[in-house]
Structures are given as structure tokens and as C-alpha cells.
Write a structure and sequence with these properties.
Blueprint (H helix, E strand, L loop, with lengths): L6 E12 L2 E13 L4 E5 L6 H8 L7 E6 L2 E2 L5 H11 E5 L10 H6 L9 H15 L14 H13 L5 E5 L7 H18 L2 E6 L2 H4 L4 E6 L2 E7 L6
Parallel strand pairs: 3-8, 3-9, 6-7, 7-8
Antiparallel strand pairs: 1-2, 1-4, 4-5, 9-10
Helix pairs in contact: 4-5, 5-6
């Protein structure tokens, strides 16, 4: 296990209580991610990919094994320290966008920065840079209800990227988008990965996403069945 890697996972097990018994969602996961990867956890529903993504993102904890993310042992983080890890180092992209409906595009993207110690001028520059990355500078005063699904997901990407995090976790980010918007979104994320060296990890079973991955990690029944580097459309 490479101690200097961005993420080190060793013999990870995750169990959930079910009735009087328990369900093993992840069973003996060993994984390492380096800085700048564009990787996907791929598999059918119930394979464990979202559970694994949530543990990497400190939204859940292991039952057994070790998970070290950006120098932090996920199992030993309390709620406050886990929140600090996410706030300072991670961005999240969800299939449902999770935008605040009463906020403008600008305000939605600025929101994560309000939790950091940044001046107003630094926040403004960061938001404008993020809007430029996703091509939405003309929608700065719009609210989510005035945007298309593709535009909402671009806002969500800008919000995830605005603080230039080391790690972005994306759970089925194209699930609510048509093919054209999906490809636009994926090209955008591949470009940000290349230019900013941000590590992206997806949980997906969408073939459109899989086409862009540089690394494909296949899961079945909570176990890794294949882990391969691939040539993709994002190159």
C-alpha cells in the first residue's frame, strides 16, 4: 500500500443491519488512488459502488478495514472532523443536482466558499472562474427553475470545483441527462481533470460515463472483480 497516495483502502468491509441479521455491502476491498485519476466504480445496482463512494467521501464509515483519504483515517473521524475534510478538500456531484432553489446560480456556486476563510474579492474571483469553466457566465443571476437539466448539472459541477478540491466524487452524475448533455458534461469534467489535476471518482453503471474513464473498477456483490486502465474519449 502506497502511503503517499491520495486514497488508500485496505481490506474494507461494510455491513448494514437487516432485520435480525446483517447485509455485507462491501467485502475485502483493496484500492489505491493517485492524484489526478479519472476513475469509475462500475457495476449494477447493489454492487456496492455508492457505498464505497460514500465511505471515501467520509459520509459513512467502515465496519472493518482501513480507509485513508488525503491523510485522514475515515474510521477515526468524528462528525465535525469529517465535515472539515469534506469542506476543505472534496467536491460532490449528485444525479439530483441538489441546488438551492431560492439562490441564484452565483449564490449556489459561492455557497461552499462561505464556509471557508476567504475574502469577498477572492470568493468572487473563484465563482467567476468556475462559471467560466462550465460556460455559464450568462446565467449568473438565474435561479435553478429557469435552467435546463444540463445547465443545472453544470452549476453543480461549478459548485463542486469552485474551491479547486483535490478530490471530486460523482454519484451517477448523468442519470437525469440526455445523451448530448451527458457527453458535454463528461467532456467538461475530463477537461477540468486534465487542467487542474483534480482526482475524479465516479459511481456509475452508465455506458456514456464509462466511455470517458481512464480507470474502470468493476464491482459485483461488494467485491472488486476487475480493475483496469482504459483508453477513453476524454483523451
Amino acid at each position: 500500500m502506497e502511503q503517499n497516495s491520495l486514497i488508500n483502502i485496505n481490506n474494507l468491509v461494510k455491513r448494514f443491519p437487516v432485520g435480525k441479521g446483517e447485509f455485507t455491502a462491501l467485502n475485502g476491498i483493496d484500492l489505491t488512488f493517485e492524484t489526478g485519476e479519472f476513475a469509475g466504480l462500475v457495476g449494477p445496482s447493489g454492487s456496492g459502488k455508492t457505498t464505497l463512494l460514500n465511505i471515501i467521501g467520509s459520509l459513512d464509515t467502515p465496519s472493518d478495514g482501513s480507509v485513508n483519504v488525503i491523510g485522514q483515517d475515515i474510521a477515526n473521524l468524528n462528525i465535525k472532523k469529517a465535515a472539515v475534510l469534506r469542506r476543505q478538500h472534496m467536491g460532490f456531484i449528485f444525479q439530483t443536482y441538489n441546488l438551492l432553489p431560492v439562490y441564484t446560480v452565483y449564490e449556489n456556486i459561492e455557497f461552499p466558499l462561505l464556509l471557508l476563510k476567504m475574502s469577498g474579492s477572492d470568493r468572487k474571483k473563484a465563482v467567476m472562474d468556475a462559471l467560466d469553466w462550465v460556460g455559464l457566465t450568462d446565467k449568473i443571476k438565474s435561479r435553478p427553475a429557469q435552467l435546463s437539466g444540463g445547465e443545472c448539472q453544470r452549476v453543480a459541477i461549478a459548485r463542486a470545483m469552485v474551491k479547486k478540491p483535490e478530490l471530486v466524487l460523482a454519484d451517477e452524475p448523468t442519470a437525469n441527462l440526455d445523451a448530448a448533455n451527458s457527453h458535454n458534461i463528461l467532456k467538461m469534467m475530463a477537461k477540468l481533470n486534465k487542467e487542474l489535476k483534480t482526482t475524479f471518482i465516479f459511481a456509475t453503471h452508465d455506458d456514456k460515463v464509462i466511455q470517458y474513464l481512464k480507470r474502470k473498477i468493476s464491482l459485483e456483490d461488494g467485491k472488486i472483480v476487475n480493475d483496469e486502465n482504459v483508453i477513453n474519449k476524454g483523451e
